[in-house]
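Anyone up for a design puzzle?
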């Protein structure tokens, strides 16, 4: 049997860690088993729908670089893949259930139903959720009468007839057998709204069936919908797909991951300069394991190693520091050329270089990559770390230049010595240049560190910087001497 899985987002929000995890697990499962991964847009909730979220979805996955085999943008044999383009079919499926006695017309006004919701809460009712929601008033209307009222144009919705007793059993791939008392299931949920739009439940089940979905891997927050969906499959006489509710993703305080914990939208991670490889690798590990004792996996490897049996029951804790670690690892793996391309947009956004830099800048940036690679936690760190390569750093406060136990005059004198030594160095020979400063230190009795500290601040604007001699080599003598002289004058002023 061909495995067919789907990612079925509702475009009512930005793509976030949880949604990307769902998409990724579906993708990886399809890859691991030679199956098909489908994107279906569940845009039935028109009040919360926004085109911007659809764009965000496409942009996010284009950036992440893993893609569906069938979907709205690329088509496929069971399209359309957007539910709003499939609206015509849902009514007939809802009517089919009515004719089978598995669903019924409900003529209650929205106000009446809304009042029922507000009058009772789960806590008040006995026996859980069944005691709130809808009181099933229209369930007992004679079907022929109901059909003629509906046919004559009386406003109505169609509700699923949830059995009043018995149980519905879910065999969840991860959670095992779960028995739901039908009496606890949401009482007679709406399948078709009064405007003819399907609800999530109807559209989701009908489309999973029509699209030949064999496995549903989705977030655990959908677990309460599972019995309802299973009841619908039974009512239609369809075999349900295998279902797997993925482990929750929590923040470090044990609560569901949310903005309170930090960034959750993929956009934010992207802007901050996380690499796609790091995000994919880390998100793939949220609730699944691959190979003992190993953390770093490419998307391709994950697609080979993914196993449903290796999904964990325990919730996954989202650890921002761990993700940062992954990011560092992947930054370190990049070649100078690759890393240059990745930092370029950040440097250009910070107006340090043109969006398409000239050759001189490209050489400079590429040459700087070995110097900054270890210091970059995120790509967005690049402008602050690298600014001194593109423009003279603002003159630091005098104290910054002054080695311990010395004063401004002495620091200025050191800069003069530095300028003299530098002028005598072959800057292409890093080791030799350093040696020249050691010789100067030995000859003058000045500490090696004291000789270099004011120079570092003059060149980079800070006591903490990428390697000094390599920076000097990149910038060239005239630039360096100008900075040293400006700093010397600043110290004397
Ligand atoms: N449209 C639902 C969502 O936004 C899909 C849930 C499911 O996978 O069944 O997550």
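Challenge accepted. My sequence:
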């Amino acid at each position: 049997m061909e495995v067919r899985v789907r990612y079925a987002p509702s475009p009512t929000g930005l793509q976030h860690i949880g949604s990307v995890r769902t998409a990724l697990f579906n993708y990886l499962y399809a890859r691991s088993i030679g199956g098909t991964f489908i994107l279906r847009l569940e845009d039935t909730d028109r009040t919360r729908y926004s085109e911007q979220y659809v764009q965000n979805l496409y942009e996010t996955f284009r950036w992440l670089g893993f893609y569906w085999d069938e979907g709205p943008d690329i088509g496929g044999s069971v399209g359309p893949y957007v539910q709003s383009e499939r609206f015509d079919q849902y009514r007939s499926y809802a009517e089919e259930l009515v004719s089978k006695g598995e669903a019924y017309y409900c003529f209650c006004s929205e106000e009446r139903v809304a009042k029922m919701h507000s009058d009772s809460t789960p806590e008040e009712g006995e026996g859980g959720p069944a005691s709130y929601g809808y009181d099933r008033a229209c369930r007992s209307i004679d079907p022929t009468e109901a059909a003629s009222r509906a046919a004559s144009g009386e406003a109505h919705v169609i509700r699923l007839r949830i059995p009043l007793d018995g149980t519905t059993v879910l065999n969840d791939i991860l959670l095992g057998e779960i028995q739901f008392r039908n009496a606890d299931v949401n009482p007679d949920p709406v399948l078709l709204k009064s405007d003819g739009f399907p609800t999530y439940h109807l559209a989701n089940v009908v489309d999973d069936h029509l699209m030949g979905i064999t496995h549903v891997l989705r977030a655990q927050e959908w677990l309460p919908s599972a019995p309802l969906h299973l009841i619908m499959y039974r009512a239609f006489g369809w075999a349900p797909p295998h279902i797997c509710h993925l482990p929750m993703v929590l923040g470090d305080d044990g609560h569901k991951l949310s903005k309170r914990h930090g960034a959750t939208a993929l956009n934010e991670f992207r802007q901050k300069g996380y690499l796609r490889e790091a995000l994919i690798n880390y998100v793939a590990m949220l609730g699944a394991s691959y190979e003992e004792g190993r953390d770093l996996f490419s998307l391709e490897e994950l697609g080979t190693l993914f196993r449903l049996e290796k999904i964990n029951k325990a919730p996954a804790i989202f650890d921002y520091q761990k993700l940062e670690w992954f990011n560092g690892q992947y930054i370190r793996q990049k070649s100078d050329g690759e890393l240059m391309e990745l930092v370029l947009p950040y440097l250009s956004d910070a107006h340090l270089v043109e969006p398409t830099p000239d050759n001189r800048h490209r050489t400079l940036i590429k040459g700087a990559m070995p110097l900054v690679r270890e210091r970059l936690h995120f790509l967005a760190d690049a402008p602050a770390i690298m600014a001194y390569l593109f423009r003279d750093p603002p003159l630091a406060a005098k104290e910054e230049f002054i080695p311990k136990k010395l004063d401004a005059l002495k620091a200025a004198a050191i800069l003069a010595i530095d300028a003299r030594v530098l002028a005598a160095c072959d800057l292409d020979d890093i080791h030799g240049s350093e040696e020249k400063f050691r010789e100067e230190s030995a000859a003058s009795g000045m500490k090696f560190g004291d000789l270099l500290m004011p120079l570092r601040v003059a060149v980079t604007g800070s006591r903490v910087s990428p390697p000094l001699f390599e920076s000097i080599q990149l910038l060239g003598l005239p630039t360096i001497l100008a900075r040293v002289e400006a700093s010397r004058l600043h110290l004397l002023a």
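A detail worth pointing out: The longest strand covers residues 167-172.
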